[in-house]
Amino acid sequence: MSVRGRPGYSLLEIIVILGVLGVVLGLTGVCFQTMFHSSRRLQDDFAHDVAFTRFYVQFVEDVHVATAARVDTVKSGSVPSDVLILTTGKEETVRYASLTGGGVGRQVRHTDRVVARDRYMISADRPVTFTVQGARPQQHVSMAVAPSTDPLPAHATPAPRWKVNTMLGIALFDTTINKQ
After folding, report:
1. 17 lies in some domain
2. How many domains does the chain have?
């Protein structure tokens, strides 16, 4: 006489299968979270690169058209910041300054009237400095975005240091950009 058990699975087999499914689903969730985090970081990096490219092209164009440049230090609240003032031969001044909350602002004035304002979100909370060296007409103008001094989380990559060097009235090919 043969003893045949009931068809089906034992309780132990079901518990093992549920445990394996739980581990697989947990790992899948971690993979999706990592993928979405990486995608978001890539989008942010791309947006910053696009903003910096827009800023870079406008900055170099403004410096090349300018006939004079100077840097003033303005106190915004308790924090001093640099303001780059470019003067053109058309009675225009172009001002670049760090903005509260991040970014660089550009303001174009014709005599005393503001004709254009732009905001470039290139620096987040990192300081932007402007320097002018030399005498007219060959003044060397540079802009640098320093790395953040805040400690980074273990998984974060440090933001690059950007630096743009150019000269008044010089063609575009004499301009350098450094991403360090």
Report:
1. no
2. 1
